[in-house]
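Hello Y.,

Per our agreement to keep a running log of every chain we model this quarter, I'm adding this entry. I've kept the format consistent with earlier entries: sequence first, then predicted structure.
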Amino acid sequence: MLSSCRETDDNNADENYVSPYMGKWVGTYSGELNGTLILNVSKSGSIEVTRTVNNNVEEVYSASLQPNESGVINSSVSPKGFVLTGSLKTKSGTWKQYHFRGNWSLKFLPTPL
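Predicted structure for the entry above:
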């Protein structure tokens, strides 16, 4: 199979991409339900979301960031119906779970040297 230089450059760019939001984000969600959120953002912008209630892990599920470096979280519904909407750029947003709703906020935790 033949490939163009442009195609090879595009593939290398994808492999070399590092999300500016990569790392661990921790915060809270509040409103009709309350708890903590831990978002682990990978190099590619995929997110592992851990949601806790009363210091117990309620669920862990996957989400992702939009590819345009805006920090916007792609809406994905967790197995328990929890949805985050918002941006890591603003470190805040809204959440809903069935008829419950509220707000969330996060802060970035730098990796220690």
